[in-house]
Amino acid sequence: MKAFFLAAAALTIAAAPASASTPTLDEAADRAGATDAIACDFVEGITTEVGPRQAGTEAEARGRAWAVKWLEAKGFVNVADEPYMMETWAPGDVMRAAVVAPFPQPLTVVPLGNSAATPAGGLTAPVVRFASYADLEAAPAGSLAGKIAFIDHAMRPTQDGSGYGFAGPARWTGPGLAASKGAVATVIRSIGTENDRTPHTGGTAFPAGVSPTPAAALSNPDADNLARMVERAEGKPVTLMLELNPRSLGRTQSGNVVGEIVGHDPKLPPVLLACHLDSWWNGTGAFDDAVGCAIVAAAAKHVAATGKSLRTIRVLFAGAEETGLWGSKAYAAAHKGEPVFAGLESDFGADRVWRIDTNFTASDPDLHRKLARGVARFGVAPSREVATGGADLNWVREQKGALVDLNQDGTRYFDLHHTNNDTLDKIDKAQLRQNVAVWTAVAGILANHPEPIKRAP
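The chain above was modelled as a monomer; its predicted structure follows.
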C-alpha cells in the first residue's frame, strides 16, 4: 500500500509544472502534493517540543504558545490565543487493574475522561460481563449493585470510521448507564481496532442525578482475556481490583488559537479551516490532531503563494475538543453574529482523502462540481452524502452555513487514536502531502468564490 502512495506522489511530481513564477491554484496544489514540507514542520515541531496537550492544563497552554509563535513565523496575521474557562479533569498517575480470582493476573487499563477515583489502594468487586451495549441497557435496575460492569462491545475497522458510531456508546455513556443500575465501577473494551496492549482513553459522561464512578478502558487483548476468564469460570465470580486516582482541577483556562491569510476583500465572510490543538495525556497527539492543524495551516499557506485570494482564510486551532468541545462552543459564542462563508475541519489523522461531501451538493451544484473537479486528480471521489462538518465547526453550524467534508481513509485511525501509540512515526508523509494538496485545492476554490453559496431552505 505504501508503495502505491509513493508511486502516486511520483506521478504528482511529474505532473507539476516547472514554472518559477507565481503558481496558479492547480500548480500550488500539485506542488503541495509533491514537495510540501510545511505540514511536516508543524506536526514534528509541536509533538517534539510540546508533546501531549491535555485540555486545560499547563501542557495545553504551552502548545497554544508554540502554535501562536509558529503561525506568526509563517506569515499569518491577526494571530491570537482567545481564552475561555473550562472544567478540567486530570488523569492522575495510578492506573492499575488485576483479576484477583479465580485466575490472578494484571490487566492493562487507562482511565476514561471524567472518571471518578477509586479509594486509595483500589476497589475490589465481582465483574458482570455485557457482550454489547444493548445487553447493558436490558439489565434490570439495581442489578449491578456492588458489581463492576464489563462492557465487551467490540469495534471493527472501516474506511469511513462508521464503526466508531457503533462502538462509541460503550465509552460515551456506558459507565453512566452502568452506574445508574448500581455498578461501583465500569471497565470497557477499548474503543479501538488494534490488538496491542495499548488501551484507548476518551471522554465519558454521567447523566444528571448519577454520581460519577471509576471508569477505565481495557486494552483489546486484556478484554479478550477477561472475557475468556468469565467463560472459564463457569458461573463462579470473577473478581477484579481497579485502582485509579484521577481528579478534578476545577475551572482552568484554555483557549483557541487563530490566524489569517487576509484576502483581497476582507469584508467578505471568511473561509474557516479548523482542527483541534489539544490531545489526551497518553500520546503526543500526532494523528489526533496535530496533523490536522498541520494540514489546514499548510493549505492556507499554499493558497497564499498563488497571490492574494478574494476571501480571507482563517485557521482555527480549537482547544479542549477531546474533553467536551469547549473550544468549539467558546468560539461560536465569542463570534456570534460574525458571518462565515464556509467551514471544513481536519480531525481524522493523515491518511489519504478519498471522498468529498458538501451540504450544498443539490442547492449549488455548480460549486460542488467545481470542487469535485479540483480534487479528482488526487484520487478523491464526489458523493451525494450530506456534509455535517467536524466537531469544532459549531460556529458554522449555528449559522446553518456551508460545510465541506474531506473524508480521509480511517482504516487504521482507530488503531492509534487516544493511545500512547499516537506518535509522529505513524504518519505516512506521502499520504500527508496528498491531504495538503486536496485541502489546498478546496480552500483555494472557496476563497476565490465571489458569490454566496446557495443553500436549501
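The first helix runs from residue 2 to 15.
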